[in-house]
């Protein structure tokens, strides 16, 4: 099976345009590959650059140098150099991302928010909603909430909607930015099981987990970001 994601010699500097263009180098020389069916975890202290790396891989941030090569619909795409339209295609079909917080359109019902990534890929609405209902029920979201917009949900309820939305598709690469941060023990176990199923299905996962128990349960290996962190070197 081809390697789904190869990151090579990536460097990222933030430029603070509102602060006289001050430059904040965050990481450099970031190189690793993700294999199908593994869950690699980004490790290292706060501020080392873990979230920045995930966001760069998802095409949220530009890079200074380096390549992010992904197997996308039978061809190789370099996300670091791809046009925005290509990045959107990669997000729809190849790289999924579960952020810590739910950001979505207001007034949409939770069930539809979860089903939307599938309908966007052409799955029939009824089938997508069935799968969404299955995930929400596994994640113990009370059924009476499914028809409501999540704006007023608790932090943990919103996060479960977010997780269901991120896990509903079969993207071959899945990025997880602290998906269990606001969850109770029972739902953390559900997420651990969902991650194990993704691995079994050949998905390549890359995550950040501050919870040591979750990290130990899901990680096949730790990629220590300290080795790439620029702020560690200059301080
Ligand atoms: N959008 C941004 N603009 C400017 N600086 C940023 C931006 N995002 C992150 N940084 C800086 O980059 C550095 C790395 O931040 P990042 O969030 O990637 O670290 P992290 O390892 O994920 O930390 P944590 O474990 O605390 O979440 C920090 O010094 C942070 O201030």
From TrEMBL:
Keywords: ATP-binding, Lyase, Nucleotide-binding. GO terms for molecular function: lyase activity. It comes from the Bacteria. Residues 5-234 form the ABC transporter domain. SUPFAM superfamilies: P-loop containing nucleoside triphosphate hydrolases. The keyword ATP-binding applies. InterPro entries: AAA+_ATPase, ABC_transporter-like_ATP-bd, ABC_transporter-like_CS, CP_lyase_PhnL, P-loop_NTPase. Belongs to the ABC transporter superfamily. NCBIfam families: CP_lyasePhnL. This is Phosphonate C-P lyase system protein PhnL. The gene is phnL.
């Amino acid at each position: 099976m081809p390697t789904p994601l190869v990151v090579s010699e990536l460097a990222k500097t933030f430029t603070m345009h509102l602060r006289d263009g001050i430059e904040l180098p965050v990481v450099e020389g970031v190189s690793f590959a993700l294999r199908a069916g593994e869950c690699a975890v980004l490790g290292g202290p706060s501020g080392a650059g873990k979230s920045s790396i995930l966001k760069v891989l998802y095409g949220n941030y530009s890079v200074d140098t380096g390549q992010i090569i992904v197997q996308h619909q039978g061809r190789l795409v370099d996300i670091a150099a791809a046009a925005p339209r290509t990045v959107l295609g990669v997000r729809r079909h190849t790289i999924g991302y579960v952020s810590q917080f739910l950001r979505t359109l207001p007034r949409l019902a939770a069930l539809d928010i979860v089903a939307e990534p599938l309908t966007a890929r052409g799955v029939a609405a009824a089938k997508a909603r069935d799968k969404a209902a299955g995930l929400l029920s596994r994640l113990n979201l009370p059924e009476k909430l499914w028809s409501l917009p999540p704006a007023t949900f608790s932090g943990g309820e919103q996060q479960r909607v977010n997780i269901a939305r991120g896990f509903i598709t079969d993207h071959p690469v899945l990025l997880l930015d602290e998906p269990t941060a606001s969850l109770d023990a029972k739902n953390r176990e559900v997420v651990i099981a969902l991650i194990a199923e993704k691995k079994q299905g050949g998905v390549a996962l890359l995550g950040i987990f501050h919870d040591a128990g979750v990290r130990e349960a899901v990680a096949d290996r730790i990629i220590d970001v300290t080795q790439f962190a620029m702020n560690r070197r200059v301080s």
